[in-house]
Fold this sequence. Notes:
Blueprint: H1 6-15, H2 34-43, E1 48-57, E2 60-68, E3 74-80, E4 85-91
Amino acid sequence: MQGTKWLTVAATAGLLLTGACATNDGKRVTSVPLAAQKTIDQYAEGGTIHEMEMEKEHGIMLYEAEVKKADGSKIKIVVNAEGKLYKLDRKECKHD
């Protein structure tokens, strides 16, 4: 299985400290549970995480990853801490 580039997320979160790695209440995403990482890796199709957010909805902490693939297409993956998939959106890159 191809792993998503989690080091990129850690470096981005640590170096840039931007809103792209923030929760809906302004807290930075500093770690993602292993089960959530594994599910994101499973659906990332070898892409690179460009944004990572976490938010609490109805008492459940959700982790949202925006993945960009080499062909320019994007995948939005939302999972909980236990790795349960809540949402998967794919947006294909349209070439003219």
